[in-house]
Specification:
The protein has 402 residues and is of the alpha+beta class. 44% of the residues lie in helices and 18% in strands. The chain has helices spanning 9-17, 19-27, 36-52, 92-102, 111-135, 184-188, 190-202, 228-246, 275-316, 340-349, 361-369, 375-383, and strands at residues 139-150, 153-164, 170-176, 207-214, 219-224, 320-322, 327-338, 385-396. Strands 1-2-3-4-5 form a five-stranded mixed beta sheet. A three-stranded antiparallel beta sheet has the order 6-7-8, sandwiched between helices. Strand 1 (139-150) and strand 2 form a beta hairpin. Helix 3 packs parallel to helix 5. The radius of gyration is 35 Å and the shape is elongated. The protein starts with 8 loop residues before the first helix and ends in a 6-residue tail after the last strand. Mean pLDDT is 91; it is low at 66-84. Bound molecules: iron/sulfur cluster. Residues 18, 20-21, 252-254, 257-258, 261, 263-264, 267, 269-270 line the site of iron/sulfur cluster.
Length: 402
């Protein structure tokens, strides 16, 4: 495979959900059918970009250049007083005009569905407009493309919005147009973790908050910046995905994602056997099923007869049972186990610990059989172990005449 291209969060998630779907999308570059919720999300994001753009104050935040290190939040002092800008916001009419202009029509199953979404978006934008102006945010970037690396793998993404916080840190926002959202999603989102890495690679200010902004309920689900441990975990995930892609591990992994997968017709988990092959294969499959059933029955019979023979051998006190076709010979196998905490004090007391450094069952059994150790001590050790006995049968039967 050629060199690995940068991974976005959505690419990472797709691979983790199903490597084969990732291959269809990112190697074979097969198109997906448009979906109403994607079109709706794209439209809303574009309109919000127009709403927020006049408020941008990118110069308020230092960018990282080589040799610039990340400042901690308590070290950050804005140079000079914050200058309040007075941008002219879009009017509500301009906002709705932008909504009409930027509306993406693809993927709606009917004019009714499209109208329903249109009304929902209009309501959502008007409510968000009021809240946005009330919040007086200080956005420094919107829909910004950023790159970084995790575990040596290039990662990239578009960050919906980056704000300067009152404490002089950064807040990374991702807009969500989904129906519902729980607060814990922001705390657990790998997407936000990746955005933190992207932002902190490119900005000389620390990320203070990571926020999933749920637009339908106008709720910013805010979480603190991720710890080094969480970022290391993400880094490991990215490394594992990159390894999987490089070694071309593209197995299908069926799950809930199959419901919205456009490639079911190509996927071995869902592909139908061609009609002309079906009859021949049906008899092969049926024969296999029958043999499996026969095998299970033979196994069950084998166990039952072995148990019967065992009972007879016990009753007669013998280990060899002759038949006409050969002799069945009963063999015994035993396995010992010791809880280390149970034997350690005893071995210590008798100076035997150096002879069983691993404290595993094989070592301890060697001590139990060691004639140089006092038999009373050996007996005491063996009493601290548990023994499992298994009987099995060997066959001694003449080779058939060649
Ligand atoms: S149908 Fe399911 S298992 Fe098959 S490629 Fe799509 S997501 Fe993967």
């Amino acid at each position: 495979m050629s060199e690995l291209r940068p991974l976005s969060y959505s690419s990472l998630r797709t691979y983790l959900e199903c490597p084969l779907r990732w291959k269809f999308l990112y190697v074979d570059k097969l198109p997906e059918a448009p979906r109403s919720y994607f079109s709706f999300g794209r439209t809303i994001h574009s309109v919000l970009e127009e709403l927020v753009r006049p408020f941008l104050v990118p110069e308020a935040v230092p960018r990282k250049s080589s040799g610039t290190s990340q400042r901690r939040l308590d070290e950050w002092q804005p140079s000079g007083p914050m200058v309040e800008s007075h941008p002219r916001p879009l009017s509500k009419d301009e906002l709705l005009a932008a909504y009409d202009r930027l509306w993406v029509r693809d993927g709606y199953s009917s004019p009714e569905e499209e109208n329903r979404y249109k009304g929902l978006g209009e309501n959502l934008l008007l409510r968000y407009y009021d809240q946005f102006l009330e919040e007086h945010p200080r956005p420094v970037a919107i829909e910004e493309y950023l790159q970084s690396t995790l575990d040596g793998v290039a990662v990239h993404g578009y960050v919906d919005r980056i704000d300067l916080t009152p404490r002089g840190g950064l807040e990374v926002l991702d807009y969500k147009t989904s129906r519902e959202m729980a607060a814990h999603e922001a705390r657990q989102s790998d997407q936000l973790s990746m955005y933190q890495v992207l932002v902190e690679t490119n900005y000389a200010l620390p990320v203070e908050h990571l926020t999933l902004y749920h637009l339908r309920s106008l709720t910013p689900h805010r979480s603190a910046a991720r710890s080094a441990t969480t970022l290391a975990h993400l880094s490991q995930k990215v490394g594992e995905v990159a390894d999987g892609i490089r070694s071309q591990q593209f197995d299908p992994t069926p799950g809930r994602q199959c419901e919205r997968c456009d490639f079911r017709g190509l996927c071995p988990e869902f592909r139908e056997v061609p009609l002309e092959e079906r009859q021949r294969l049906e008899s092969l499959v049926d024969r296999f099923i029958q043999l499996r059933k026969d095998g299970e029955k033979v196994d069950a019979d084998l166990h039952r007869v072995a148990d019967e023979l065992h009972a007879e051998a016990e009753r007669l006190g013998v280990h060899r049972l002759p038949g006409r076709a050969g002799v069945a010979i009963r063999r015994r196998e035993e396995e010992w186990s010791y809880a280390p905490d149970g034997v350690r004090p005893l071995l210590e007391e008798h100076g035997l610990l150096p002879r069983a450094s691993r404290l595993d069952a094989a070592e301890i059994q060697r001590l139990v059989r060691d004639p140089t150790i006092d038999p009373a001590v050996r007996h005491e050790i063996s009493k601290r172990g548990g023994r499992q006995v298994r009987w099995y049968w060997e066959l001694d039967h003449p080779e058939p005449d060649s």
